[in-house]
Amino acid sequence: QGETSVDTNTTEPEWNEQISFIEMFPPLARKIKIQVLDDANVGDVAIATHYIDLQQISDPGRNGFNPTFGPAWVNLYGSPQNSALRDIHKDLNEGMGEGIFYRGRILMAIAVEIFSSPSQPGEVTVEVEDLHPLPENVLGRKEEFFLFAAFFEATMMDSSLTSKPVSFEVSIGNYGKTEEFMTKVRRKVEKGELKEEKQSLLDPSDDELDDEVLAPASAAMNKSVTKSQRPEPTEYDRSYSCLPMAHEKPCVYVWSYWEDHTWRLCISNWIVKLAERLEQGLDDVEKLMRRPKAKAEERLREVLEEFVAGCRQYSLGAERKTMANPNNLDKYRMKYLMRNIILSAKQGLRVRRRLTRANIKEKVKDTRRILTKLRFMAKEPQCTLPDVLVWMLSNNRRVAYARIPAQNILYSVVEEEKGKDCAKIQTVFMKVPGLHTGEIFAKLEIYMWLGVTKYTKNCLAELPEEFKYFSESGQETAQLLVHSPPSRLSRDADFSYFQLRAHLYQARGILPADDNGLSDPFARVVFSTHCQTTRMLEETLSPMWNELLLFDQLIVDGKKEELKTETPIVIINVFSHNKFGSPEFLGQAFAVPQVKLVDELYSRPALQFFDIYKGTKAAGELIATFELIELDYSGYLEDVEPKEPDYLGDPRAGRFIIPEGIRPVLKEFRIEILFWGLRDLRRVNLFEVDQPQVIIECAGKKVESEVIMAYKENPNFTELVKYMDVELPEQVYLHPPLSIFVVEKRAFGRTVLVGTHVVSDVMKFSPRELEEEPEDMPK
Fold first, then answer.
1. Mean pLDDT of 612-633
2. Residue 1 domain-assigned (yes or no)
3. In this structure, what are the phi and psi dihedrals at residue 289, rounded to the nearest 5 degrees?
4. Which of 207, 250, 400, 774 could be disulfide-bonded to 392 (CB atoms 3.0-4.6 Å)?
5. For residues 548 and 550, what is the distance between their CA atoms, to the nearest angstrom?
6. Taking Cα atoms as reference points, which of 565, 595, 611 lies closest to residue 276?
7. Same-domain check for residues 285 and 229
């Protein structure tokens, strides 16, 4: 590693030094690590760390280029504190995990020169030498950017927040951070006189902001924190809390100054949109492939045709794109993208030409490969605008955050170059710093817009029409004045209600929570500020709830005509019931409901598959379907069948069953099991297995074998044949899996799990002549 010199007592160091590594090319490393350190008496403290991936700044292909970068600004992220003492997140400054706070930025460049001399260096040598400073304005002048955010909903908040008021802070770079972080605090620390400055690292170029730019003192007019509100429990099931925002939506806005290199992000957004459309199409195809007689092959043809047309449009658009102050990497990257998009289009055409019904699985895999490459190409290595950080403050403490890349909400006049979430009500999940469980701390629905100030008049154009704008002083403003954006939106009387029907049929392959390898699962369904729970089923990994949850009189934000494409999502959290403590989280699934507006005909939805994830790990799948139905003014459902759903079991429990036509028709099957013996059982918790037993579970029914008394002496069963009668759906693809568990009885009545196996397709054990009319399935 090489180091620059130390620049003392400054938050805006200027080094103008070059560090050269002389070694064999290509290097064996994949990343370059850049770390800004604070040179302290006790030991260097990392301020922030950034990694540059060599694959993103070079192209090893035949017409490729060597690693090159910049000169460009690199944004640094890390922990919210500036003192290393008592900082629980200081690993983030070392580059471990996602940074949760903006820590400044650094101007740098990378270049590779190849020597012609054949002498091989014995080891890597490092040289540091001085450089001439860069000419002024080499990166272009600073432009004023405007960031606007309106909070439409905050729900699924951790129930620990109920007692204290909650507010939100939105910042980009150092603009919009609350005052507490901008004050200088000097403290004396016992070990030597270590002077600490608790102050954010400001940009080295802030002193260039002359009076001309700061004419509107916009920075002083920033309103980056919402008013605090007390959370309330969600409706129906009070296990989460939400903020009361049904008719009043708080807004925040921040002005900031950055060099305008938005054209880089515009090109990247174009490719992101190509990739998003391709992925959406592939997901459709994979859903169709699970069903017999569905037209998956035709859909894949359409998807590829669309993709090739999109590539053609990109290559025409990109040729006309002008780059302001491009550096070497920009010029190379432009050619590289052009070449590879054309190549991807050719690959897409080839896949389409060779597609048949027999090889569709393989062709979907090929298309996924094209998609992975597109996703890689869309990453812009020189992203000069920092990410937008949304923090949730509870009692003025920072409790959860979300980091939104600036390019996703960036405005452009060209539709294809706009960020995918710009001027849309998007769902943002807030995380707790440093926790990697994948559990969501809160869910926001938030409308965001970021752009150069000259486009500010477009920033409210996409908001739903039923809102009126109110300024800070409480006056109604008709249009957006450049220096006084609205500070809250208020809903007019004219809006419609919706009803959500959540048909939860069953889940499969969920994670075991208990010692016996099973769970006692129930599901919580969250939509907007409402939450409902299914019944709890005992000891199963494929719970068949067969339950309809009705959410009535809902208000859905957003334009009605866009509801079909921008549908708000339903979140399904699966938990295992715990007799002695809070329920254990098993995973969560996201679903998009099918929308039916008042003037449309009703059609029954079909059951769909949704993947359940716990963090990034797959944790089973859910079979369900969701409908969002608009009610007319009297709240009456005209042609919706059934108007009043039937009760599930006892009417007093108030639970509904999935209506006919949506729930599958069940038939009775018999599963016969021949128990033979057990072999090769490993030790469990250091003890050998001595008294094992087999449990077989399918569709909520269980069969237990006898307990083998002395496994070492005789590992075979004496009672051989057992059976169980189960009800399974007529459609084979809806069959639940069959689970096999081996458990051992230990002292004091304890059982421990030795191992499990899941048979996903029970029908492969049915006799051939019963394929048409399967009644009996021996195993």
1. 90
2. no
3. -65, -20
4. 400
5. 6
6. 565
7. no
CATH number of the domain to which 566 belongs? 2.60.40.150
Asked, for residue 491, whether it belongs to a domain, the answer is: no
SS3 labels along 161-191: HCCCCEEEEEEECCECCCHHHCCCCCCCCCC
Last residue of a domain, one of 463, 489, 511: 463
> How open is the CA angle 467-473-474, to the nearest 5 degrees?
35
How many angstroms separate the CA atoms of 650 and 657, rounded? 11
pLDDT band, residue 678 (cuts 50/70/90): very high
Residue 11 lies in a domain: no
Instruction: Point out the least confidently predicted range of 255-264, 428-437, 447-456, 590-599.
Output: 428-437
β-bridge partners, 49: 35
Range scoring the smallest mean pLDDT among 20-34, 387-401, 429-443 = 429-443
CB distance 266 to 450 below 8 Å: no
Contact 371/347 with Cβ under 8 angstroms? no
Evaluate if residue 204 carries a pLDDT over 50: no
pLDDT exceeds 70 at position 200: no
Q: 522 and 631 share a domain?
A: yes
What pLDDT digit, counting tens, does each position of 120-147 carry? 666 778 888 888 888 877 888 889 999 9
Domain around 113: 17-134
* Amino acid identity at 525: V
Do 278 and 334 lie in a common domain? Answer: yes
Partners of 53 in the β-ladder: 31
Q: Are 55 and 102 contained in the same domain? A: yes
DSSP-H helix ranges across 290-404: 296-319, 328-353, 360-377
Q: Which two tokens stand for residue 499?
A: 């009803």
Coil, helix or strand at residue 215: coil
The three state secondary structure string of 655-724 is: CEECCECCECCEEEEEEEEECCECCCCCCECCECCCCEEEEEEECCEEEECCCCCCCCCCCECCCCEEEE
Could you give the CA distance from residue 401 to residue 250 in angstroms, rounded to a whole number? Answer: 18
pLDDT of residue 206: 33
Mean pLDDT, the chain, as a whole number? 85
- Total domains, the chain: 5
Q: Helices (DSSP H) in 6-122: which residue ranges?
A: 90-93
β-strand pairing of 125-130 with 101-110 = unpaired
Enter the tokens of residue 15: 């080094």
9 contacts: CB under 8 Å, gap ≥ 6: none
Task: Check whether 688 has a pLDDT greater than 80.
Answer: yes
Listing DSSP states for 413-473 in one string gives SSGGGS-TTTTSEEEEEEB-TT--S---SEEEEEEEEEEEGGGGGGTTTTS-TTEEEE-TT
Q: Is the pLDDT of residue 341 over 50?
A: yes
Neighbours of 200 (CB within 10 A): 18
- pLDDT for position 435: 64
Task: State how far the Cα of 198 lies from the Cα of 184, in Å rounded to an integer.
Answer: 5
Q: What pLDDT score was predicted for residue 382?
A: 92
